[in-house]
Amino acid sequence: MRIAVIGAGAVGMHYARKWREAGHTVTLAYTRNRDGLAARASEIGAETASPRDAVSDADVVLFSVPFEHIRDAAQQIGPLHDQVVIDSTNPFTPDRSSVVELAPGQTAFSIVAHALPGARLVKALHNLGVVQVEDPHQQPVIFVVSTDAEARSVVSGLVTEAGLVAVESDDSSAVAATEAPGRLFTAPLDATQARAALTTT
Ligand SMILES: NC(=O)c1ccc[n+]([C@@H]2O[C@H](COP(=O)([O-])OP(=O)(O)OC[C@H]3O[C@@H](n4cnc5c(N)ncnc54)[C@H](OP(=O)(O)O)[C@@H]3O)[C@@H](O)[C@H]2O)c1
Predict the structure, then answer these.
(1) CA of 57 to the centre of ligand 1 (A)
(2) Taking a C-beta distance cutoff of 8 angstroms, is the pair 166, 198 a contact?
(3) Low-confidence ranges of the chain (pLDDT < 70)
(4) The ligand 1 atom nearest the CA atom of 37
(5) Which residue from 31, 48, 179 has its CB within 8 A of the most atoms of ligand 1, so it is best to mutate?
(6) What pLDDT sits at residue 72?
(7) Burial letters 26-40, b for 16+ CB under 10 A, else e
(8) 7: DSSP letter
């Protein structure tokens, strides 16, 4: 698969590395420092490109930018044409010390959906920190939320290839429960507990 990573920070680099190890083609984009990005890409055998070029022939896009840069990154991507987009964002303040107060019913996911109108959007890779997903004492569960069954299945496959357990939901209300500051955000659940927890969202 061809995967574009928009925002190659802690999340973007973690999953870019895993997917390169699984044999996928990965392109990193959206940076303040092109040389730094190129160095990170060469470490894992990835390419770099502008956000627009990275997504143009991608099968899947990982959108992993800080909350305050959602609109800017989306503008740099430009129009999408039915690509599967994984939204990993959480609504933290720029210094990451607290959660941004959103309007009733609004989530980071709804903001990304508005900013990326052509995307087949899937909320995933958001509910656990990159340190948590490497914890050998946990069976890390990633919630994969979308009303698009085919896109969910593609993303669950990538979650599994990254060594994690995918727990799917087609219920959009699961987004608020699993994004920060929802009750399932960073919750150390196994797959059975995670499925049970979703039924009460
Ligand atoms: N960290 C976690 O454990 C974790 C887990 C789950 C979800 N999330 C969410 O996933 C998203 C990404 O988190 P992250 O921790 O990977 O973020 P991060 O480490 O700060 O990485 C974001 C990347 O965005 C790029 N970027 C481009 N323009 C930027 C600008 N003007 N200012 C800042 N960054 C800019 C940066 O690339 P360059 O460095 O190349 O400039 C940076 O590496 C966030 O919404 C976060 O809440 C984080």
Answers:
(1) 23
(2) no
(3) 201
(4) 40
(5) 31
(6) 98
(7) bbbbbbeeeeebeeb
(8) S
Please calculate the CA angle 83-187-142 and round it to the nearest 5 degrees: 25
Give the Cα separation of 75 and 60 in Å (integer). Answer: 18
Range of the structural domain that residue 31 is part of: 2-198
Q: Indicate which CATH number applies to the domain containing 7.
A: 3.40.50.720
Q: Map residue 8 onto helix, strand or coil.
A: coil
Q: How far apart are CA 25 and CA 61, in angstroms?
A: 12
Type of residue numbered 98: S
Paired residues of 52 in beta bridges? none
In angstroms, the CA 15 to CA 158 distance is 9
Is the CB of residue 7 less than 8 Å from the CB of residue 14?
Answer: no
- DSSP conformation class of 196: H
Number of domains in the chain: 1
* pLDDT of amino acid 93: 98
Distances from the Cα of 26 to the Cα of 21, 23, 57, 195, angstroms: 10, 9, 11, 31
Copy the structure tokens of residue 161: 């290839």
Whether the CB of 100 sits within 6 Å of ligand 1? no
